[in-house]
């Protein structure tokens, strides 16, 4: 892959995320359009052939109310085609007594293929996870990639979300003063 082609596919901070129509555990959802006026924290996972592949979503699920209090919605996305969709979620519910209360799109290759390279550009043995924060207008504000062995730090994501919201509020207030 040439660098120019790779750069053309990488999402850019302060650009609108392309609309994605996804089949999820909560039905069909369009991101970011269905989340207008809300912040979205998109938790991307490359997937795994084992059922515990979604256990990284659990710390976020346990603190979903804190995200809701910040006018933010969580959304999970795993790209592994071999993970049999609802069976992963059922495995978590049955074995770990944990329900994932936010929508998760699992292996929706028909609709995710257009963004698979954008969200998780690595291939082969290096499997990375990604967290993306999207503002209420569908603008990408944060991209964070981390390695398989690290868990997404919920406190760090919440702090970053609060910072981005405060910065957006200050910027809007400044724009009103300038006008």
Key terms:
disordered N terminus; 7 strands; Glutaredoxin; two-stranded antiparallel sheet; 6 helices
Model description:
The chain has one domain (3-178): Glutaredoxin (3-Layer(aba) Sandwich). The chain is 36% helix and 23% strand. It contains 6 helices and 7 strands, in the order αβββααβαβαββα. The longest helix is centred in the last third of the chain and has 25 residues, at 154-178. Residues 1-8 have low confidence and may be disordered.
Uncertain runs: 1-8
Strand % is 15-25%
Order of helices and strands: HEEEHHEHEHEEH
The CATH class assignment is: Alpha Beta
Structural class: alpha/beta
Number of discrete helical segments: 6
Which overall shape is indicated by the principal axes computed on the Cα atoms? globular
What's the N-to-C terminus distance? Answer: 46 Å
**What can be said about the biggest beta sheet?**
5 strands, mixed
Q: Strand arrangement, largest sheet?
A: 5-4-3-6-7
The CATH topology is given as: Glutaredoxin
Count up the domains: 1
Q: What share of the residues lie within helices?
A: 25-40%
Total number of strands: 7
Mean pLDDT: 76
CATH architecture: 3-Layer(aba) Sandwich
CATH superfamily: Glutaredoxin
What is the CA-atom radius of gyration, in angstroms?
16 Å
Give the arrangement of secondary structure elements.
Layout: H1 3-9, E1 20-24, E2 27-31, E3 39-45, H2 58-62, H3 64-69, E4 72-78, H4 85-95, E5 104-106, H5 109-119, E6 128-134, E7 140-147, H6 154-178
């Amino acid at each position: 892959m040439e660098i120019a082609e790779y750069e053309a596919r990488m999402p850019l901070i302060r650009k609108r995320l392309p609309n994605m129509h996804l089949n999820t555990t909560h039905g069909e959802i369009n991101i970011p359009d269905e989340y207008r006026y809300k912040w979205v924290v998109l938790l991307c996972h490359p997937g795994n052939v084992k059922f515990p592949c979604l256990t990284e979503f659990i710390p976020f699920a346990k603190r979903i109310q804190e995200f809701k209090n910040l006018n933010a919605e969580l959304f999970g996305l795993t790209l592994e085609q071999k993970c049999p969709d609802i069976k992963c979620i059922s495995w978590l519910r049955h074995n770990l007594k944990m329900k994932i209360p936010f929508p998760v799109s699992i292996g929706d290759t028909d609709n995710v293929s257009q963004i698979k390279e954008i969200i998780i550009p690595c291939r082969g043995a290096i499997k990375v996870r990604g967290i993306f924060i999207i503002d209420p207008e569908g603008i990408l504000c944060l991209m964070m990639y981390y390695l398989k062995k690290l868990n997404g730090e919920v406190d760090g994501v919440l702090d970053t979300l609060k910072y981005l919201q405060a910065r957006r509020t200050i910027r809007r207030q400044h724009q009103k003063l300038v006008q």
